[in-house]
Design brief:
Elements (H helix, E strand, L loop, with lengths): L11 H10 L24 H6 L17 E3 L4 E4 L10
Antiparallel strand pairs: 1-2
Length: about 90
Amino acid sequence: MEKIGIRVPRHAFLRKLVENFGSPVVATSANLSGMAEAVRFAEVDKKILKAADLCIDGGETALKKPSTVVDLVERKILRKGAGEFEMFK
């Protein structure tokens, strides 16, 4: 079964961008799989910056941790990161 990831940003600029755009924004993570997470723009891998159509420096990440990743199909937390998540029934 194929799965998709959905991120709901807390960042005010990103929320406004999506609201004004009127559609979801498709984006990659700011790090390559297995590599360290970027906390600030200068830490984003140059390969990602070069391949992207648009890169915006939104400042340092508020919580300085990667996001929590939850598999809603299997109902389990795959990666505990920033933010709180309580599995619903």
